[in-house]
Amino acid sequence: MSRLLIASIDRFGPLQNDVRDSLNDVAQEVEVIAAGQTIVSPGAPSRLRLLSRGVAFRQHVLAGGGRQILGFATPGDLLDLSGLFTGADHEVRALGPCEIRQISAHEVRLLIRRHPSLLAALCRAVMTEARVQRNWMVGLGRRTALARTANLLCEIYARQAVVAVARDNRCPFPALQSDIADALGLSAVHTHRVLRSLTKSGLATVRDGELVIHDWDGLAALAEFDPEGLRPLHDPRATVPARPAGVADPAMAQAFG
Amino acid sequence: MSRLLIASIDRFGPLQNDVRDSLNDVAQEVEVIAAGQTIVSPGAPSRLRLLSRGVAFRQHVLAGGGRQILGFATPGDLLDLSGLFTGADHEVRALGPCEIRQISAHEVRLLIRRHPSLLAALCRAVMTEARVQRNWMVGLGRRTALARTANLLCEIYARQAVVAVARDNRCPFPALQSDIADALGLSAVHTHRVLRSLTKSGLATVRDGELVIHDWDGLAALAEFDPEGLRPLHDPRATVPARPAGVADPAMAQAFG
DNA sequence: CGACAGTTTGAAGCGGCTCAATCGGGGTGG
DNA sequence: CCACCCCGATTGAGCCGCTTCAAACTGTCG
């Protein structure tokens, strides 16, 4: 029963029924991972891993001991797209407690060989991730600490809204201030002050592992948040209804909510 | 005759002979583009474009008028991977005069349908680009202006060394200081000072549209440059000889040099 | 109760920005 | 052939965002 996996891949271009059937037949391994544990090590043998619960992050550690967080993953995200055909070039860790489902590299290879449309979907997944990365690059290079932080919070919420994990303007986000700092290219101290100012402006609060949005419109405006950058790319031949930002995808919501 | 295109895609996993044959039969349009002109507009209809001569760059322009350069492309690079199945999310422009070769979206679609291994190769090309982006993110977030600049120069040289366009420690790089600034997330003034200090330290010089490396080892050390991050991903089932940084790929060199 | 991890707050310093002026080269029109 | 202009490189001065260092505070766990 890999309802979750099918729904997650389906976002990137409607899968044919025969692909769904094949995916259904594949043995799937479920694993629970504690906060802070490594999910994918750099260079690890490739598999197809789906984050089914929790929040994870990708990071690159520098020689000097510092690190840059390269992105966050929320339920419904595939974790090792960057290393599907080869070893991963970065590390993926659990931010909070996570649950993942994975299928072996061998199975993936068989599936892909049998169903080129699956490969196309995975390819679109990779392109979607690359697009999110570009948005981060813009933020790191050209946005102020405040806008950058606001943007991150918008992204975290919008991602989890799709799978209906975010509700009533709140969603899980078990990050330390130093984690947020390493994601935004800031110091932990300054990150704290920025978060503080966001709270005082009545925009959003990060506390006790939870993100609370007080004023979505205000936050999005400050961030110049573009939800388009998060939308999964799909097969252009198929018509997929566009949803406004922060609104759940029915299929994903049913699977993950 | 699409020798260049075949060699370029071949980097991302050896193509079967039948794929090569098909690529050979495809009509290819050659276009020359003046410096500064747009090659790919955001949302443009997808095609498969190869940069055969010159240097191009990807950029995202901000509401406030600023911009972030997201990456550079050198001969042998595919230009609209991010929009292969859908519209591009960013702009690609010619930095200096460029020559591109392209095949229509329709042709691409046919080729991909007929040859899944081609799709796999393109997928690896996308993943390779995503990896380069991650390296930029690390730089923008966590490296000093000096290291970041050094890193960029290393990347520009190493990319063009593969296709033997870079030789004798020099290669084309027709960027204004303001271009470099927008790539590194710096101001033009500060970029100038950093370049100046690199020159005075005897490491590298950017002048008259050309990059000259005076001390590769010193520059690479300052940059903590990792050539691994640029290496094209290829099919893990195939054995491809690893080449040290800055050394030409024989096939690419023959095609582009 | 102390030990520890993470948050909070203050103060000082620096990297990089902004503003502003000058310099240099290539093109253009007189 | 020269005067002019324009764009980009260059240089200086002052400022601000963010960093670093340091200390106090809070909650949690043994």
Number of domains of chain A: 2
In the CATH scheme, what's the topology name of the largest domain in chain A? Answer: Jelly Rolls
Structural class of chain A: alpha+beta
Measured distance between first and last alpha carbons of chain A: 17 Å
Number of helices of chain A: 9
Placed side by side, the strands forming the largest sheet of chain A appear as: 2-6-4-5
Mean pLDDT of chain A: 94
Note down, in words, how this protein is organized.
Two copies of one chain form a homodimer. By secondary structure, chain A is an alpha+beta fold. Chain A has two domains: 2-136 and 250-255, Jelly Rolls; 143-228, Sandwich (Jelly Rolls), CATH 2.60.120.10. Helix content of chain A is 42%, strand content 19%. The first copy, chain A, contains nine helices and ten strands. Chain A has helices spanning 3-10, 17-25, 105-114, 116-142, 145-162, 177-184, 188-200, 216-223, 250-256; strands spanning 29-33, 38-40, 48-53, 56-61, 67-73, 91-94, 98-103, 170-172, 204-207, 210-213. A four-stranded antiparallel beta sheet of chain A has the order 2-6-4-5. The longest helix of chain A is centred in the middle third of the chain and has 27 residues, at 116-142. Chain A is globular. The structure holds a DNA duplex (30 and 30 nucleotides).
List strands and helices in order, with pairings.
Two copies of one chain form a homodimer.
Chain A lengths: L2 H8 L6 H9 L3 E5 L4 E3 L7 E6 L2 E6 L5 E7 L17 E4 L3 E6 L1 H10 L1 H27 L2 H18 L7 E3 L4 H8 L3 H13 L3 E4 L2 E4 L2 H8 L26 H7 L1
Helix pairs in contact in A: 1-9, 3-4, 5-7, 5-8, 6-7
The structure holds a DNA duplex (30 and 30 nucleotides).
